[in-house]
Amino acid sequence: LSFVFHRKNGVRFSLSRIYSNFSLMKKIEVVAAIIKSEHKVLCVQRPKYSKRYISLKWEFPGGKIKCGETKEEALKREIKEELTLDIGEIQYRLTVDHSNPDFHLNLHVFSCSVSSGVIFLNEHVAMKWTTIGDLTQLDWAAADIPVVEFLQTSF
Mean pLDDT of successive 10-residue segments in the chain (155 residues)? Predict the structure, then answer.
């Protein structure tokens, strides 16, 4: 699909380039964990990035699904890598489709419990155990906001 427009001043521009950039946007499948303990939820803060829309934002821990992994396998691996925790009692809760300026992600969210380990932050700069009522006090990454809303209404 290609459209070329001409302005009165002779400048040409094309929507095909805009459309192709949108359709070629990188798509990422990721998982996230709602880890509950004693009526609180574990939240982690991303490090400082050049991309302001995710820099120092709070999120639910997780990450990318590798080729050949199930969502549950990816979740266990990511939580072990990021937090040095082993998790169990994994239950699917929801999927969030979200577009950032430079990529689209499908965020598959699971609730789980900690089966063993002590939290050590390998990729994040801070962590916080927060009540569901206090989740809105944090500055969340945009993709995680629907998860916060889900927790406040359904969990």
Answer: 45 45 77 95 94 92 97 98 97 96 94 96 97 97 97 90
Residue 143 CA to residue 100 CA, distance in Å, equals 8
65 in Cβ contact with 142 (< 8 Å) = no
Cβ-count burial of 145 within 10 angstroms (0-12 exposed, 13-18 middle, 19+ buried)?
middle
Residue 84 and residue 121: Cα distance in Å, rounded? 8
CB 147 within 8 A of CB 60: yes
Neighbouring residues of 60: CB distance < 8 A, sequence distance ≥ 6? 32, 33, 34, 35, 41, 42, 43, 44, 109, 144, 147
Give the CA angle between residues 141, 111, 140 to the nearest 5°: 10
